[in-house]
Amino acid sequence: MNPCVLTLLYSIAVISAVHHSMTPLELKHFFGTENKDKVPVYFLDDNKKHRRHVDDGFKMDFLIDGVMETFVLRNKPHLFSEGYHIMENDVELMMHPLKDCVYEGESAVRNGTRIGLVGCGNKMNGMVVADNGDYHLIQSHHQTGHHVIHKRSIESIDHECQFDANEDPYPEDREEIAMKSMLIRMVKDIRRAEPHRRDILTVELAVFADDAMWDHFKKMYGKAAEENMHTFIMAVVNNIDVLYTQRLLQPRINIKIVRYEILKNIPHLMNARKHSNGDVDRLLDAFCQYQNEINPPNDADPRHWDHALLFSGYDLHRNGVKTVAGYAPVKGMCSGVRSCTINEGLDFGSVFVVTHEMGHSLGMYHDGDNECDLRCCIMSPSVGSGKTHWSQCSVNEMATFVGHLGDDFRPPNCLQDASANEQRMVAFKESEPPGQLFTLDEQCEIFHGECWKHELKDGQTMQNICQMVWCGNGEGVIRTAHPALEGTYCGFGMICRQGQCVGSSQLMRVTVGGWSTWNDRPAPTCGGRCSQCEIRGQIRIMRSIRQCNNPSSNNGGAPCQGDEARGMVCHRDVCNGDSIENYATRVCSRLRDENAIPNTILSGEGMQFEQAMCKIWCLISGSTNIRTVSNFPDGAPCGPGQYCIKGECRPLLCGSTTLAYSEADCPLSVLQTTTTPPMPHVHSVDQFAGKTNPYKEHKKTPFLNEWSGWSVWSECVTYDCHTQGVKVRVRRCLAGVCAGALRERQPCTRPCTGSERPLTTSPPQQTFRNRFIAPLPNRQTNMILRKVDHWGPWSACSVTCGTGQKLRRRENCIGQECAETGPCVMQSCRENKNTWTEWSQWSDCSVNCGEGVQFRKRACFAAFCRGKDSDVRNCYGQRCSETTTRRPLVNRSGLWTGWSSWSSCSTKCGIGQRTRRRRCYQGSCLGDDNEKERCIGSQC
User: Fold this and answer.
1) How much of the chain is in helix, strand and coil states, percent to nearest 5?
2) Are 579 and 696 within one domain?
3) What region holds the Peptidase M12B domain (predicted)?
């Protein structure tokens, strides 16, 4: 007889003897129901498995629907983070972390069937996800010693999701998602042909089990409760990770467990009386607040988590309804106190409940509320069998939410911390687009010359570079170069393609920038000559520069930290000449008369201002505002013992030889020499002739000038065919400090190929960047160089409850840090409810005809506010006719929230200030975001 049939007959023979003897608690744990009549068909599988090792893992057989099926499994250690730890009552335990007993794999006989298991030896828990449904594999039952394997019922899990679209804190995302969906439909054939994206985000997860969960496992497993509960919960999380790593979901989400804790002695905040034995709203509030209070605040801390998950043993309920299995704040991911999920954790159906609720936390709505079928997928309102994949709507919704993390009034993206190993990728090939071969800084250097770098023009965002790149020389002048080259990074997961910033179909190598060595003899265009005397009190210096190209930062990698230029004293004398005020006025008058700055009218009056002492400030005609236009010359005085270098005020260090941020930036030759050049002293300008350079004199080794040969010329680098571009060749400095350029450029054009047609681009432009705009200072107080005072008193806390920030300033401060912030902790937010601003006005209707939505916003100026910060209602435009195209309406005017309550008085006794605030949540708002008024402290 067929051995599979024998196994099937054996399994059926023992079914009735097993589940009929189970308690309701065991039935719930093994089958997801307490009713014996609703137990699904199940099989008992021998737990003594024989492993057959293969190259990338091992093979193992499991009884699926009565037939033995072979699976290929691999170890999966990355489910646990490097900072993974197990806690119990604030004590770290040394329980075996199961790192060597976590597996993932796929069926050897059925394509697309995946498996996730956790457990050592015969104590395995896991799930098989197949096209025809999902199968739960539960650890050995004590009566038989066999694994229980059953297919999840085709009926929906008894779970009523509590998602409410009116609680969406960012309802404006819906319009963007709708527009993206329309575009995706237009280009779906192109997308289908694109290679699979492999962007990776990581949710660092803290997993908790409450006292009721612990009591249930003690009743079922006795002394083995801890081990069995640990294995079971890790198996649930492992299969949540399996669902989030599906190919369709982009960016891909990895789950990493940071902390595991059984709350045997429940915190007072989460006591059963506090949440009425499972009231879902109260329990969620309590758990979210508790996990936020104990979470290390620094995202770089290996024990910090991005999201917290509670496995609860309580029967969750709301308003008498007990069909609630889980709950999470809408779009709460990365937002601290709102980044949390609770669920009934007793049975394996919690895999889908948690996956679904975390989907809401990641910005997903219910399928059916969007354009996708409500019956098909994980985000269906009903969590049922076969709903094991993501809809395209869920993919778009999550990508939109994640893409906006870090925007104004949204939390930073806490998920971009995948390891280099996880983000591995092959080296770029010659066929890669030029925008990935040349960073934005390198594109500016190629088109404008050495020391030109990418700068955003005022009002530009990274996505605008696909239409035009602006390059700056660090002196306030910026020029257009060209639209960014094809493939240039323009935002997280985005590249420039045909003048638009679009999603990338490839994983982009994220490169963190590193400094080159200092170049003490840069090209003249980079300041490689001794500065001329122009201002009274100026010292003459020559720049030494380094570049952030070792390697160049790219694709969102962090840029280099520190100064790119230092100033080497190249003359012993201090300059006589015009005052710094007169010099600034000459520059402002020249710019006004030459009309070099379009759309800006300057009065011609200039000055030096303490907000940025090395910038030239010009008065804007007809107003009381001033703005910066360029830098003062290198060596201009900006404070006691401080001088300008490339627009920054730096002290004279290194034995009075170098302008630098710190002694760490001193030239090696200065650090090694025992002789110290004298401090520059005052002479008249006509005495400078014939003086020697002490910097050259104290160098003990000659400058070497040994270049390699030139490389071959590159291909023509250009945005478009038949437009002028450049080709470059490079060489390396083999020894010492080489004089001359690292690169040479030649103009070129690239012929059009095939159906390619040249595009029309605008002629080059030049302007000055508005780095700063400020009110006109009081001449009597701001134009005098003063000594720096000690720190002033701390300001009032920025919030009225919870954790905020306080500020203090130096009253007289020139050219150095003039303000600092520190944390402050006010009363618990539970004791202060009035932390919301008033509601804003309702927005315009989102469409020009038919049914749309309006929303209004308010802002929370505290660490935690109860309630929601947005409100949505339906609106109806004119009736859509056959000739009317229904389209979103774009409101370009600025919209404010209402005002917050007044803060407490800044002083406890006497006259002080109090403030109230509001936020601009759409467009460019007119007016101030804060108001102040006098108040009198009453605690005298």
Assistant:
1) 20, 30, 50
2) yes
3) 201-402
Report d(CA 355, CA 328) in Å as an integer: 11
What pLDDT does 432 receive? 62
Q: Give pLDDT tens digits for 90-111.
A: 788 776 667 778 888 888 877 7
> What's the structural domain count of the chain?
5
| Structure confidence at residue 339 as a pLDDT band (50, 70, 90) | very high
The token duo for 144 is 């038989």
* Dihedral, CA of residue 311, residue 317, residue 321 and residue 322, to nearest 10: 40
Q: Which of 209, 220, 232, 227 is nearest to 343 (CA)?
A: 209
Question: What are the structure tokens assigned to 225, written together?
Answer: 């409760």
Is the pLDDT confidence value at 505 over 50?
yes
pLDDT at 782 over 50: no
568 and 679 both lie in a single domain? yes
User: Is pLDDT of 290 > 90?
Assistant: yes
C-alpha dihedral, 393 to 399 to 403 to 408, nearest 10°: 40
Same domain, 283 and 363: yes
Q: What is the DSSP letter of 223?
A: G
Helix axes 173-186, 392-404, angle to 10 degrees: 130
Q: Does residue 396 surpass a pLDDT of 50? A: yes
Catalytic residue flag (residue 357):
yes
499: in domain: no
pLDDT, tens digit, 9 for 90 and up, residues 554-604: 888 788 888 889 999 998 888 988 899 999 988 888 887 775 445 456 788
Nearest one of 259, 305, 314 to 284, comparing CA atoms: 314
* 450 falls within a domain: no
Could you tell me if 664 and 538 lie in one domain?
A: yes
Q: Strand ranges (DSSP E) for 531-641? A: 539-545, 565-574, 602-609, 612-620, 625-631, 637-639
286 and 199 in one domain?
yes
> Is 744 a member of any domain?
no
DSSP string, 5-27: HHHHHHHHHHHHHHHTTS-HHHH
Chain position carrying tokens 């996730």: 116
377 and 244 together in one domain: yes
The CATH number linked to 790 is 2.20.100.10
SS3 for 390-448, per residue? CCHHHHHHHHHHHHHCCCCCCCCCCCCCCCCCCCCCCCCCCCCCHHHHCCHHHHHHHHH
Active-site entry in 69, 104, 357, 564: 357
pLDDT for residue 638: 92
DSSP string, 712-755: PPPPPB-SSTTSEEEEEEE--EEES---S-SEEEEEEE----TT
Q: Residue 245, by phi and psi: left (phi above 0), alpha (psi -120 to 50) or beta?
A: alpha
Q: Stretch 128-147: mean pLDDT, rounded?
A: 73
Looking at residue 699, its pLDDT comes to 32
Q: What is the mean pLDDT of residues 537-563?
A: 86
Distance, in Å, from the CA atom of 567 to the CA atom of 844, rounded to the nearest integer, reads 55
Residue 930 placed within a domain: yes
Q: What is the Cα–Cα distance from 762 to 779, expressed in whole angstroms? A: 43
pLDDT at residue 776 is higher than 80: no
List CB contacts of 120: < 8 A, sequence separation 6 or more. Answer: 96, 98, 100, 101
Say how far apart CA 56 and CA 869 lie, in whole Å: 50
Q: Is 366 annotated as a binding residue?
A: yes
> Average pLDDT over the chain, rounded to whole?
74
Answer with the one of 656, 676, 700 that is the final residue of a domain.
700
Q: What is the mean pLDDT of residues 296-314?
A: 90
Contact between residue 516 and residue 547 where contact means Cβ atoms under 8 Å apart:
yes
> CA-CA distances (angstroms) from residue 871 to 252, 327, 379, 868, 925?
31, 20, 22, 8, 20
Structural domain boundaries, residue 580: 524-700
What pairs with residue 135 in β-bridges? 128, 151
Higher pLDDT, 48 or 51: 51
